[in-house]
Design brief:
Two copies of one chain form a homodimer. Chain A is α/β, with parallel strands linked by helices. Chain A is 44% helix and 14% strand. Chain A contains 16 helices and 14 strands. In chain A, the strands form three sheets. Chain A has an eight-stranded mixed sheet with strand order 2-9-8-7-6-3-4-5, sandwiched between helices. Chain A has a four-stranded antiparallel sheet with strand order 10-11-14-13. In chain A, strands 1-12 form a two-stranded parallel sheet. In chain A, helix 5 crosses helix 12 and helix 14 packs parallel to helix 16. The longest helix of chain A has 22 residues. The first copy, chain A, is globular. The interface between A and B is large, with 86 and 86 residues.
Amino acid sequence: MDFETKYSKLGNSLQSSLIRELLKYASVPNAISFGGGVPDPETFPRKELSQIASEIIEKEYAYVLQYSTTEGDPELANQIIAMLERIYGISNLSENNIMFTTGSQEALELAGKIFLDEESIAIVEDPFYLGAASAFKMRFPKFVTIPLEDDGMNVDVLEKELKSLDEKGLIKKVKFIYVIPNFHNPAGVTLSYEKRKRIIELAERYDLPIIEDDPYGLLRFEGEPLDPIFKMAGPERVILLNTFSKILAPGLRIGVVIGSEQVVRKFVLAKQGTDLCSSALTQRLAARYFERYDILQQITPTIKLYKSKKDTMMQAFEEYFGDIKGIKWVKPEGGLFTWVTLPEGFDTMEMFEIAKQKLVFYIPGQPFTPDNKVSPSMRMSFCLPPHEKIVEGVKRLRDTILEYGKTKGLI
Amino acid sequence: MDFETKYSKLGNSLQSSLIRELLKYASVPNAISFGGGVPDPETFPRKELSQIASEIIEKEYAYVLQYSTTEGDPELANQIIAMLERIYGISNLSENNIMFTTGSQEALELAGKIFLDEESIAIVEDPFYLGAASAFKMRFPKFVTIPLEDDGMNVDVLEKELKSLDEKGLIKKVKFIYVIPNFHNPAGVTLSYEKRKRIIELAERYDLPIIEDDPYGLLRFEGEPLDPIFKMAGPERVILLNTFSKILAPGLRIGVVIGSEQVVRKFVLAKQGTDLCSSALTQRLAARYFERYDILQQITPTIKLYKSKKDTMMQAFEEYFGDIKGIKWVKPEGGLFTWVTLPEGFDTMEMFEIAKQKLVFYIPGQPFTPDNKVSPSMRMSFCLPPHEKIVEGVKRLRDTILEYGKTKGLI
C-alpha cells in the first residue's frame, strides 16, 4: 500500500534534514569538514568507561540490564546534584528536581510536547539551534525570533517583542523563552551577565518560563564563567537542560532536565509514553564515572585540545580571511563552534556547490534561520579536524569565497 | 511561576499511570507481586555482555561512544536481517528496512506521530496494551476496539466495524490496525493462523496498514510457532515492531522497526527530532552478542524457566480457583502474562484494596480498557516470583476473591 495516504499532518511535514544531506559529501576522501558538531573521540575516557562497564554489568546486572524508572538512575541524579552545587553553588535540589532523557534532544522534544500547541508562541534565538527547531516544529507553534549579538540575544528586541505581544493580547500564548547561554550552537556567542539579568526581569514581568539549554557550559577555554540563569532565577522560573554528550560521550545518550518538582513531574509523564525510560546501563556507567573521577580534571585536556584548535582556526581566519572586506567571525570563549558571516549578498547555501568541488565543508546558515531564508553565514566546528587540516580547510574556504564572490560580482 | 498556566493540551492531559501507583505497594516486605511485566534478571547474559562491553568500549570507542546515525547500528541491522531469515524465513530485507528505537515504546510513539491526527481512527485490541495506549493517546485519535478471544482478535467484529466505517465514509480516517499477535500483553492469547489471514484480507480490502507488535514471539513454551503477519503480507502492508527487552535485556533499550523503505524513512525523520539517535554502545553490544552467541540457544533456559513458572501458576489456579464458579483464565503458550477474568459483577480495581491488605498484587483490567471502564479481569505475570511465592500468591488471591465476592454478595 501507499503509506503516504495514511500519514498525519506531522508525518507529512517531516523532511530530510539539510545537514544530513550536506554531511554525506563530507566523507569523500581528502575532504575537510567543519560541518559536524561531534566531539573528538580521542577525548572519550575509554579505559575508565570500559572498566566500569565490565564491572557494573557483572555486579549490578539486576539494575543495569533491567528497565529503569522513567525518572532515571537516582545515583546519577545525586552525582548531578553534587556537581551543580560544587561547580555553580546551586543548592537545595533533590532527586525530584531531576529527570534523565535519551540525549538532550529528547528533553527538547518533551518540552515541545508539554508546552506547545499550534497556536502557541515560542521565543527563540536567531540563528536557532536546529535540534530545538526540529523538536519544537513537530508541535507547529509560532516562533518569535530574537537576533543574537556578540554578547547574546538582543534584549532590547526581546523587550519590544514581548511588549507588542502583550499589547496584542497574545502574551498568554507565549509558552517560554528558549536560550542557549554559553558558546551558542550555531553562533558561538555567550550571553553576558547583564543580559541574563535583563532576560530574567522580562520573564518575570510577563510571567514566562525560561528554558536554558546548556550543553557546552563546562567547555570554557577563556574568560570568566557566568552564573547559569537557573542559578540566578531558580527552578520556579527556569528549566535547565544539560547533557553528558560533550563532556563525557554522546554514545551514552544521556541528557538531564533540572527544574521545579512540578515541571519535572510533567516531563516524567511525557517521557513515560515517549520511551518509557532511558538505558539504566549508560546512566549507571556515567554515575560510577562521576563518582570515581573528577569531571573538572577529566575535561581539562579536552578543553585544552579544543582551545588550541580554536586558536588555530582563528589564526587561519586572520591569515586567509583578513583581506576579505566585510567578512566577520565570532571568537568563541568555549564550545565547538564559530559562526562566520560573509559580506552582504553572499548565499552560503549556493556557495556550497563550489565548496563541494574544493572539498571543504561547513553548514550554511540557512537551516538555522527560523524561516529557512537565504543566509550569508555559516557554522564551522573546529573540534574534530587536526590542526593542519584546519589551516588547509580555511585556505580552501578562502578560495571558495573568492571564487563565489567574483562569479557573483560581490568582491 | 505556575507552570500549569503554560501547559499544552497534551501537557494538561498527561496523568500519572495507575500501574505506577499500584506497583508502589508491591515493594513492601512479604508482598507477592504478579504486577510487573519485567523479565527475571537471572536470565540476563551478564558474563557475556560484561566482556563484550569492556572490549567494544576499549577497541571500538570511536563508534560506540560517539553519536550514532538516526537509523542505528548497521551491524545490528544485519544481525536482525539474518535472524529474521533464519527464524522466520523472511528474506529480501536490507538495512533500509530497519531502524532501531529507544525501546519499542519509542517505536509506538513514532508510529503515533507519523500516522495519527486528532480526527484519525486507530483499530486496537480490547484489552489494549498500555504502552501503545499511552503512546497513541498523545495524538488524541479515536479508537475502535476489537475484543480479544482465546485465539486473538474477534475478526467478525473487525469486519463489521470496518464495513460500518466504510459505509459512514470514515474508512479514510482509519490509519492502521494495531495487533500484538503472540502471547498478548495483557491478555496472554495468541492470534491463530486463520485469523492472521482474515486480518490481512480485511486490511487489503480497505487498504489499511497493519502494525504488528511482537515483543514476546520468541518466548514460546509450547504449540507451533506461527508465521508473523509481516511474513504473510510483506513490508508493503505491515510494519513489524520488535525489541530485545524480553530476549536479551531491557536495560539496553533497543527496539526495532521493520518495514518498507518508504515507511522506515518516515520513522527515521520522526526519530531525528525525537531523540536524534539511540545509544551506539548498547546497539553494538547487542550486535556483537548476536554475532557470537546463538540467540535461540541462549534463550532456551529462559523459555524453560518461564514455562515452569507458568505451569506452577496454572496448577495453582486449578487448585485454588477451581471451585470458584465463573472464573476463567488464559493458558498462555508463551510470553510473560496470563489474564484472569472473575465472575460478572467483580471489579478488580475495587478488589485491589483487599489484595493490598493480603499483600498480593496484580494489575486490574481497568487501565487496559480503552475507556477506563470497570473490569472483572486482571493481568498476572508469572515470570518474576519464585515457584513457592507463585503458589502462595495465588492462595492469597483466592482469599481476596472470596472475601470481596462475599462482601459484595457475588459468591
